Amino acid sequence: MCTMLEKTAAALERAQARAMLNCIAELDPTAPDQARLIDRQLAQGQQLPFPCPILVKDNIDVAGLHTSAGSLALADNIAACDAPVIRSLRRRGAVILGKTNMTEFANYTTAGMPGGYSSRGGQVIHAADPALSPSGSSSGSAVAVAAGIVPAAVGTDTSFSIVACAQANGVCGLKPPAGTLPWQGVVPIARTLDSVGSLARDFSTALALYNAMRDAPLPKVQSCAASSLRIAVNTANNDMVSPGQKAFLHETLNRLRSRGATVREILQEPTPLQQIIMQWEFMPHLEDYLRSSAASRRTLREIVACYLENPGTMMKYGITLLQQALDKTPCGLRGEPYLQAMEQRERAIRVTRHELQDVDAVIMTGPTNIMHFCGLASVALAGQKTDGHGVPRGLILYGADELRLYRTAMTLEQLLP
Question: What is the arrangement of strands in the sheet containing 24-27, beginning at the earlier edge strand?
């Protein structure tokens, strides 16, 4: 059986061998020392539920490493201490191998920025096909898992940054309910919607990584008989689904029905109100993070000025979202558009939870952001069949009850074609 030091050394070798994917922002030189400590703890009989080398997205504080969120404007921000989720991971046996590249400011820099691009890190490359987008914003974490560098990695998700990224790279992703994991030490977009989460090759590992970030673990989650499942299929924007994905969904649903699962349709459409919350929360929440950071720039105005002063290196795709958050959010969190959006969000949460009270999980077909807007847990599963690019086809699920959702995901993973 491999020691943690051997596992860590092997992961570092894989990171070097796959450097062309540009998924890693920096490696932690203390990783071997971390591994030796864990080996000593295990030898002494300590119970460590997650002894594993992992990588962490570059918008989460890891002591001694940069937290730049992919931006050159924060290139001097070296974390003095670990974010709470990282402290929890270390207590559970994780070795922090280093940080992953990401879409700049978690894809809240400009409209149309390519997934996986940042001014500090450059472009992350898809592991299966360089012509494909690695998606975003947890691009580096997803690619590192897909390429086999690490068994699991930490990401963040405000609106599809884990689950869509996982689906695009053929791995599993888990975004817990908003507010479940502590937000301290994480560069935010909007704390109402943000969540730290996990990416892994299989759902059990993604769930174990999430558990290791929690203050207290969830009750044990086990798969169940497919006949007991109650599945809803969200038909919103179904016309936007590719023929290949439609065929995969059809085959998956037939498998569920043949095993006795209850399957019905539901309509939960996307909402533009999520963008209002993101725009109005971005500046005050970012500046709250910056005040306790080592970054020399402490305000969004200073960050925008940095971009404008360095167009050659930082303005390849523009800064439309940063500029709008700076210029179009007077009154901060007291702005009337923001307060109205938050009021309507509360109403949407009540309606959505009522609609899903007898549903174990919803399968998303066409794109909808309702689960992110309402702060529900969501999961991306990878199947065994691959598309024309060699990426395993997958599903995105969400639900109002996270334990029922995870049980469904564990069961579905075994049934996916």
Answer: 24-27, 94-100, 52-57, 152-157, 195-200, 172-175, 377-386, 392-399, 361-364, 230-234, 262-266
pLDDT of 45 over the 90 cut: yes
Rg of the chain (C-alpha set): 21
Please indicate whether residue 57 is annotated as part of the active site: yes
Q: Which of 71, 161, 195, 198 is catalytic?
A: 161
- Determine whether 328 is an active site residue: no
Q: How many CB atoms lie within 10 A of CB 127?
A: 24
Q: Residues 66-114: pLDDT tens digits?
A: 999 999 999 999 999 999 999 999 999 999 999 999 999 999 999 999 9
The one-character DSSP state at 73 is G
Q: What does the alpha-carbon distance between residue 63 and residue 57 come to, in Å, rounded to a whole number?
A: 13
d(CA 101, CA 68) in angstroms, rounded, equals 10
- The set of residues, in sequence order, having a beta carbon less than 8 Å from that of 184 and lying 6+ positions away, is 83, 84
Give 72's DSSP letter: G
**pLDDT at res. 207:** 98
Residue 281 and residue 189: Cα distance in Å, rounded? 7
Q: Which helix (H) or strand (E) holds 9?
A: helix 4-17
Of 57, 71, 88, 119, the catalytic one is 57
- With the C-alpha atoms ordered 101, 105, 109, 112, is the resulting torsion angle positive or negative? positive
Amino acid at 307: Y
Q: What is the pLDDT of residues 109-157, one digit of tens each?
A: 999 999 999 999 999 999 999 999 999 999 999 999 999 999 999 999 9
Find the helix or strand (DSSP H, E) in which 183 lies.
none
Largest CA distance in the chain: 62
Give the global pTM. Answer: 0.97
Tell me, what amino acid is at 189?
Answer: I
54, β-bridge pairs: 96, 152
Q: CB of 182 within 8 A of CB of 84?
A: yes
Catalytic residue among 118, 135, 137, 198: 137
Q: Which two tokens stand for residue 23?
A: 């998924």
